[in-house]
Amino acid sequence: MFKITKSRGEFVREAETDANGAITLDGLPAGSYIVTEIKAPDGYILQDTPKTFEIKDSGSMELVFTNKKAYGLQIRKVVKGTNQPLDGCAFTVEKANGEMVGTYTTDSSGLVTVSGLEDGVYIVTELSCPEGYRLDPTPQNVIVTSGELATVTFENEKLAGVRIKKVDAVTGEGVYGVRFLIKDEHNNLIGEYSTDQDGYIELDDLLTDGKSEIKLKVEEVAAAEGYVLDDTVRTLRVRRGETTELVVENTPILGQIQVVKKSAQDNPVTNQSKGSLLEGAVFEITNADTGRVVDTMTSDSRGIAASNPIPLGRYYVQEVQVPRFYQLNNEKVEAKLKVEGDVVQIEMYNDPANIQTTIEKTGNYTVDAGLNMRYDFTNIANNSNVTLDNFFWHDRIPTDAVRAATLTTGTYNARVWYKITFKTNMNDYRTLADNLLSTNAYSFKIDSGSLKLAAGEYVTDIRFEFGTVPAGFEMTEKATLLVYVPDYMANGYNIINRAECGGSYQGEWDNAASVWVTKIYRAPTYTKPTLPQTGF
To answer: How is domain 2-55 classified at the architecture level of CATH?
Structure first.
């Protein structure tokens, strides 16, 4: 079994080899990928060194992973009666003379493989097993022989158990904090227990003195806040190796939470004034005790978001989706429903989204024909109070007067992965470099020779593509572009260069531009005057 991720760690898929030991991955977009083996075939050792590969626009490639055959000792852990693999069981392995080899834990296949062992007798002892199973404390001896895989199997008996689930009679969701008394058939108290955050009480190992089954009495003695007590006493029969389940419903006592959503300030994008009621805000209501989301609500045209009826109790209300052209309000507001029919109303405000990008470009005021000059790019920033998508900056090279030579990227105050693309007079945009980190500085030769362009082909545009950037994302070290001015350019010609920067928020774009003009200077040519000859 293999896991495939992108070079930056983004999960792509898992895949398992076929009968021929092969996997074919089709439909992967161009980019860099990492392949990691996560499960080896039975009897083989995991090859856990990842391998990388790159998908280009066309073609295919092959990766080969080699698994060594496992020699030594394999511990197999299964459930008694079903032979089902059991993970999470810990074992010690020691030599017959008492020398400790190590402690190991079974994987999802119920296996532990210990390689590199010397020939001899080893003792395997179970240390722990998952909850709900009986530990097998009997050590087992196993003989390890060079070139062979010795196998030892341990079985765990599943304990007799009870699982009680308390649920909301309306929603079916588990109810936290319900207290039960559990007694045996002679009314002897076994214990008092409370449901967990998912509404469960789970008890194991209830059979003692060799009994094969017992009867239990279950009684609810305290309902959760916001629910009606169910005082019915229920009888359960518990048998060895089985888990008896009981689902008990509670009728909720209901109330409602409402949010009134308003604009905190005038919004110049939407032309809404301060205090305007906002439609489209989405809120989650979570139970303060369990952290479970119990409802989601959306503000309507009146700015009101109303929950469905929910049980009395303590809740948190938090905005998870913001109205268009407003900032998300991250405040978590507590609301408590105290009596039947209670309606708690909360006012919450959103600040308008201020969308602004900037860029500045400077260069020479004058330049001699036949020489190089440098453009500097500074103050490239997302000055918005919100995250921007599709953030970029772009320079249109004035190819009527210059040719691009060298590009340096500059650095930024936040870690963002980005790429640089370029366009020529003969071809559309293609990638110059990808997977660049914004806090690192890079330099690239972009003249025609370095890029191996066709005869007469040259770079006309450069584009930096950052994707999503946070509010306040800004340049910390300037970017530069070195260009060459051909020596045939005329004196006084104006080289006009335009750079732009931009990004979008909820589909609304902001763009900034900077223009720099450089005048070509050619020194005047003087002809030496011819002086009249004089004689004596």
So the answer is: Sandwich (2.60)
User: Residue 4 forms beta bridges with which residues?
Assistant: 13, 35
pLDDT number for residue 1: 84
| CATH code 2.60.40.10 region(s) in the chain | 2-55, 72-158, 161-250, 254-350
Tell me the residue type at 288: A
CA distance 212 to 458: 86
Among 310, 334, 330, which residue's Cα sits nearest to residue 320?
330
Q: Please state the three-class secondary structure of 419-446 as a single string.
A: EEEEEECCCCCEEEEEEEECCCCCEEEC
User: Could you tell me where in the chain the CATH 2.60.40.740 domains are found?
Assistant: 357-521
CATH of domain 72-158: 2.60.40.10
SS3 content of the chain, % helix, strand, coil (to 5): 0, 55, 45
- The low-confidence residues of the chain, meaning pLDDT below 70, are 43, 57-59, 70, 159-160, 208-210, 241, 525-528, 534-536
Domain 254-350 sits in CATH at 2.60.40.10
Long-range contacts of 132-138, Cβ-Cβ distance < 8 Å, separation of 24 or more: 132/158, 132/159, 132/161, 132/202, 132/204, 132/243, 133/79, 133/86, 133/157, 133/158, 133/159, 134/158, 134/159, 134/205
| Rg of the chain, C-alpha, whole Å | 36
Query: Rounded to the nearest 5 degrees, what angle is found at the Cα of 309, between the Cα atoms of 304 and 310?
Result: 110
Over the stretch 455-512, which tens digit does the pLDDT of each residue have?
999 999 999 999 999 999 999 999 999 999 999 999 999 999 999 999 999 888 999 9
Q: Looking at domain 357-521, which CATH architecture does it have?
A: Sandwich (2.60)
* CATH number of this structure's domain 161-250, picked from the four choices 3.40.50.1380, 2.30.30.40, 3.30.1540.20, 2.60.40.10: 2.60.40.10
Instruction: Let me know: does 224 contact 294? Beta carbons within 8 Å.
Output: no
d(C-alpha 480, C-alpha 377), whole Å: 6
